[in-house]
Amino acid sequence: MSALKITLKRSCCGRQLKHRRTAQALGLRKIRQTVIKEDTPQIRGMVRKISYLIDVEEV
Question: pLDDT digit string (tens) for 2-35?
């Protein structure tokens, strides 16, 4: 199964609470932090919700 490389590119300060919590659930805490997650529908939904804060690459 493929994976997604997710990088936080913008700060979560001043964003909606749900968007901040979504970033935390993905494991993103600091700007330029990168995590690799399995490509599932749940992760895709989280990525779509905060797409303006992150960069996503398929690995």
Answer: 999 999 999 999 999 999 999 999 999 999 999 9
Q: What is the DSSP letter of 30?
A: S
Q: Coil, strand or helix: which one is 49?
A: helix
Please name the residues in contact with 54: beta carbons below 8 A apart, sequence gap of 6 or more: 6, 7, 8, 9, 10, 23, 28, 47
52: CATH:
3.30.1390.20
Over the stretch 35-59, which tens digit does the pLDDT of each residue have? Answer: 999 999 999 999 999 999 999 999 9
How many CB atoms within 10 Å of residue 29? 11
